[in-house]
Amino acid sequence: MEAGTPPLISLKGVSKSYRDGQVLALDDLSLDIAPGEFVSLVGPSGCGKTTVLRIIDGLIAPDRGEVLVKGRPPEPTYDMAMVFQSARLLPWRTVAGNIEFVLGLRGQSRRDRRARALALLGAVGLRDFADAYPHELSGGMQQRVGLARALAVEPEVLLMDEPFAALDAMTRETLRGELLRLWERRRMAVVFVTHDIDEAIILSQRIIVLRPRPGRLDAEVKVDLPEPRWQTDPRGLPAFAGLRQHLWTRIHAMGREGAALEELASVLGDGPAPARDTDRHR
User: Fold this and answer.
1) Mind listing the domains of the chain with CATH numbers?
2) Minimal CA–CA distance to 215: which of 30, 78, 8, 77?
3) Is pTM beyond 0.70 here?
């Protein structure tokens, strides 16, 4: 984030627990995201990535700390949109109807809704499927509709929770490119959760690495690779290989550490052992 630019999203000292405080999901997490920035959250399972998205969206509240979106406490609004692992389309509505439904909630006229839905479907390559129903589409096509529906409200913040994880490799490649093209045109802030290190590097301007049990900031890594990346694949560059190796080494080490701590805790009979701090890489 450039100096002097106020953050669009700000988390300061955020902690969140579940099961009446028995499971600490996030611990003292501070993070700023600038307008138009593409940020990926990575880390081992259990590091609280999805919890971060839900806190930003206002779906859940932190136990401690401050969360601000555009300078105000967050709440589910049309300024934000969420895309999940599954498209979660309304099965009784057509592809265009799913998008028109969201636009109708914003008070757009029927004619304007139809025109807007068709334009968005054209942007994701599905205009010819406007009158199809979700069950007639492949999983990748359904995810395209879900992305178009999220963009229909023209959000300033797009939250994405492993949206391509269940898709085959070729479909993932296609949707990554489409997402990058749409982001380049619209420049909304994107917070993208993934377990795929290559995906995080290809898509992001900055990668946040979280430590597990509980989720804490481990590293912030700037991705300084040529753009637009949907035109030039960066995976052959030495810089890409260096970033990949660095991230993989950190995350793999955290996974080994977590397994060792759990094994020690089971021997001692004291429950889960607390995670330890390591040096932060910036």
Assistant:
1) 1-79+165-268 (3.40.50.300), 90-154 (no CATH)
2) 30
3) yes
